[in-house]
């Protein structure tokens, strides 16, 4: 029987390691570095990362993403992209969260392996090679660095160590992940994992790590953790993380558990992103889009931009190359022989596309039966506590009724209508009058024949006035318009809902005179409990008291405005 000596074993191991190194050299790697207000350090950090990957002999590109910074982060990233090879600059239009920045970076990623690396370089990029070798040696699909690995070396505030361990225990109980740390900012993925998982995720901020890893485990991908060397550079014990951020992380984590274990949201099959350059026309409703939105749309896809309005004389030619006085003129233009546009997107002029807005819509048109695609117009962004509560009210079922899925994230489904501020339609369907626009909504004229798909990833954001007076004025104006148009034949399933606030407040104000005491008290209790329950689904106990008060005032404003609109309709009818 042959016995391998120590030299033979060493030779075999060295050969295996050499094979792994050769495999790494032959693979294309994308390193995504999300950055927010890193203007002082980002250029040098990109330089350091660039030197590390060059010395390691890796075929890698760096994608630095500015997440809507208020300093010169974007300028410094663009300076680095101009100086160093294989460095790409990307950005979000405003601070959308680290998770969203990573998704934006992934839109520009190429190759077989994707690396997430925090731009502050608390984790030195020299550790990337160790994770890459572990990825190939496993073989694993995901390798994450872990602060809780017994071999990790940490220069890290004690308070953050405690908080990190507590969060690990919570995640362990809720999800049972095979790793002890989800939040460390160095992770490596095979591209297949992100292709299959990224477009299913909803969290855009800190808890995105948990959602990403929990969903990856859900689909059977193999995850492994390795020790890390962490040198915490921030001056404060908590860095940039505030108490409000800790609360948000906990709330988002509970929401992920609810979607994963209860709703089974992530199990829904989704078509992959298109890889062809299909031309798309995005039409702004009413006024030209901002230069920032136009730049983002054109950079992301083969997109032309137009405006549904008369062309002003002073607008720059690069902003909107096409103007149409109305839908009829747009349809005429689509009928021209040289026109190759097959898909048209309609975007409100005051809306901001989120993520890969056009790509997410296009993938639904792979099914020939799908004639149109709509998504939610999510209220936001907000810059105050009262602004946050107003977005919760605006998207609530108790204010939007059966149509609240058009203002909030829901599961993919077939629908009969979508908001005109966020909808895509086949050019042939527009020309053939398969859909109609009416008072800010697009309806299918024959719902049984033409499918409109609701996709939560085809989302845009739209600012909502904060509480109290600005928001209540908006609610009253909407209810007044509902009264002027009541009953509207296009919104049959919403007729009762438009008058519900008036009926409720009539019962509250007059019910004590006409109803038995117990019945009256029961109605009040049920009403208040419904408001409380609708607020609890946001998992935000801090905002709940103001939400309840805001909802009561919202319904009161609508109850006063709706009959005024009805009166105007009656007088106009005379």
Question: Summarize this, please?
Answer:
With 574 residues, the protein is of the alpha/beta class.
Description:
- With 574 residues, the chain is α/β, with parallel strands linked by helices.
- It folds into three domains: 246 residues, Spore Coat Polysaccharide Biosynthesis Protein SpsA, Chain A (Alpha-Beta Complex), CATH 3.90.550; 183 residues, Alpha-Beta Complex (Spore Coat Polysaccharide Biosynthesis Protein SpsA, Chain A), CATH 3.90.550; 105 residues, no CATH class.
- The chain is built from 19 helices and 23 strands.
- Strands 12-11-10-13-19-15-22-17 form an eight-stranded mixed sheet. It has a seven-stranded mixed sheet with strand order 3-2-1-4-7-5-8, sandwiched between helices. The chain has a three-stranded mixed sheet with strand order 14-23-16.
- Strand 2, helix 3 and strand 3 form a beta-alpha-beta unit.
- Helix 1 packs across helix 5, helix 16 packs parallel to helix 19 and helix 17 packs across helix 19.
- The chain is globular, with a radius of gyration of 27 Å.
- The N terminus is likely disordered.
């Amino acid at each position: 029987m042959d016995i391998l000596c120590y030299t033979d074993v060493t030779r075999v191991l060295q050969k295996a390691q050499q094979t792994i190194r050769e495999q790494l050299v032959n693979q294309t790697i994308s390193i995504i570095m999300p950055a927010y207000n890193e203007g002082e350090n980002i250029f040098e950090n990109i330089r350091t990362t660039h030197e590390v990957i060059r010395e390691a002999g890796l075929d890698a590109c760096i994608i630095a993403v500015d997440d809507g910074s208020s300093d010169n982060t974007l300028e410094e990233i663009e300076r680095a992209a101009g100086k160093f090879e294989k460095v790409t600059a990307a950005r979000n239009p405003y601070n959308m969260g680290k998770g969203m920045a990573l998704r934006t970076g992934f839109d520009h990623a190429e190759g077989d392996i994707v690396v997430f690396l925090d731009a502050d370089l608390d984790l030195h990029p020299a550790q990337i090679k160790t994770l890459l070798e572990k990825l190939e040696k496993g073989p694993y699909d995901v390798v994450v660095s872990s602060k809780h690995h017994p071999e990790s070396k940490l220069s890290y505030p004690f308070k953050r160590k405690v908080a990190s361990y507590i969060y690990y225990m919570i995640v362990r109980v809720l999800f049972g992940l095979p790793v002890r740390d989800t939040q460390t900012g160095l992770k490596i993925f095979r591209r297949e994992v992100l292709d299959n998982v990224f477009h299913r995720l909803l969290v855009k901020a800190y808890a995105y790590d948990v959602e990403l890893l929990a969903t990856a485990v859900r689909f059977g991908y193999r995850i492994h953790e390795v020790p890390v060397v962490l040198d915490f550079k921030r001056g404060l014990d908590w860095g940039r993380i505030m108490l409000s951020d800790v609360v948000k992380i906990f709330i988002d984590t509970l929401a992920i558990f609810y979607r994963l274990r209860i709703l089974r949201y992530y199990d829904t099959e989704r078509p992959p992103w298109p890889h062809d350059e299909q031309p798309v026309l995005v039409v702004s409703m009413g006024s030209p889009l901002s230069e920032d939105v136009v730049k983002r749309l054109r950079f992301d896809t083969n997109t032309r931009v137009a405006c549904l309005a008369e062309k002003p004389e002073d607008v720059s030619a690069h902003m909107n190359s096409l103007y149409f006085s109305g839908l009829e003129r747009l349809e005429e233009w689509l009928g021209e022989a040289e026109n190759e546009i097959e898909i048209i997107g309609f975007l409100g002029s005051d809306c901001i596309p989120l993520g890969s807005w056009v790509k997410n819509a296009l993938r639904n048109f792979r099914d020939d039966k799908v004639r149109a695609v709509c998504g939610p117009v999510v209220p936001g962004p907000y810059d105050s506590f009262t602004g946050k509560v107003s977005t919760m009210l605006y998207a609530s079922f108790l204010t939007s009724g059966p149509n609240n899925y058009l203002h909030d994230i829901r599961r993919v489904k077939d629908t009969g209508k979508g908001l005109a501020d966020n909808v895509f339609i086949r050019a042939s369907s527009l020309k053939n009058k398969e859909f109609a626009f009416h008072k800010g909504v697009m309806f299918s004229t024959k719902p049984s024949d033409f499918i409109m798909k609701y996709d939560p990833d085809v989302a845009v954001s739209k600012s909502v006035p904060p509480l109290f007076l600005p928001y209540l004025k908006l609610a009253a104006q909407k209810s007044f318009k509902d009264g002027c148009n009541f009953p509207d034949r296009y919104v049959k399933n919403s007729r009762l809902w438009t008058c519900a606030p008036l009926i409720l407040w009539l019962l509250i104000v007059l019910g004590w005179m006409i109803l038995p005491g117990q019945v009256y008290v029961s109605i009040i209790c049920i009403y208040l409990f419904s408001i409380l329950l609708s607020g609890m689904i946001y998992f935000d106990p801090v905002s709940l008291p103001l939400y309840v008060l805001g909802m009561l005032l919202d319904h009161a404003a609508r109850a006063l405005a709706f009959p005024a609109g009805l009166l105007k309709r009656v007088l106009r009818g005379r």
